[in-house]
Amino acid sequence: MIDDAHQNTEFSLHKPLIRQGFARIVGHYDEAAVLQREVGERMLERLELVKLDPAVVVDIGCGTGAALPGLLSRYRQARVLALDLVPAMLLRARRRRHWWRRPGLLCGDAESLPLADGSCDLLFCNMVLPWCDLESTLGEFRRVLKPNGLLLFSTLGPDTLVELRSAWRQVDDQVHINAFLDMHDIGDALVRSGLAEPVMDTERLTLTYRNLADLLRDIRHSGAGNATAGRPRGLMGRARRHALEHHCEQGRREGVLPITAEVVYGHAWGPTAPVTRRRQDGVATVPVSSIRRRRP
To answer: Taking the CB of residue 20, how many other CB atoms lie within 10 A of it?
Structure first.
């Protein structure tokens, strides 16, 4: 039995490893990130149900910018910013446009947003929270949202990759897959952060793969690899890979390997009064008006 303190240490995320991992896979990301793209499209559809006329929209953790054309198209009068931790991702995102409009670019961490207090009307955050400290990130979202501004996000729940997690448990007891938080824990964190009227829901999507090699390649190329402090060091090894493949094959159905993605959606509103918080991390915050627009 692993106690809670040890488990939290084992599953703690290693931010430099996350940054390096996403930087390495930029060229493969769009091909592998099928789930991220599908969920992003579903989030854009959800915005159709919200009456909002934002002046400033930020796509947090934009990756290569798949959602940016949709945001630029929907909010034609808004300043749309693309923010990502990895400069190479932003180089790809800057190619996204809607007609003559392009997003502004901002390199930064969701846990320490380089944006001024109360400067944003809409935060669009697709599949970023699994790679962040939740409390710090939600605190930053609350800080930068204008009163009554909207946070719309998606993340992964604990049943994600349940088939692969089960197969690994039969091979060894090491940490091979990131821990994903339950919807109710995320909802509690939203309340603690001071964001208003949080609403959560989930859906399960099933991805199918021909074999284990295709699954592991997509995980690696989409940036969803193991970034925990307790991850195994070194290569997998032929014997362990064969054992993992054997146990994964027990779940084959109709000629394919089904893999579950538990997608958690949520939205919440900014505080009714502006938030001012003294930054202690040395990250400069700037008003949105000082970020230059890119020319077509």
So the answer is: 13
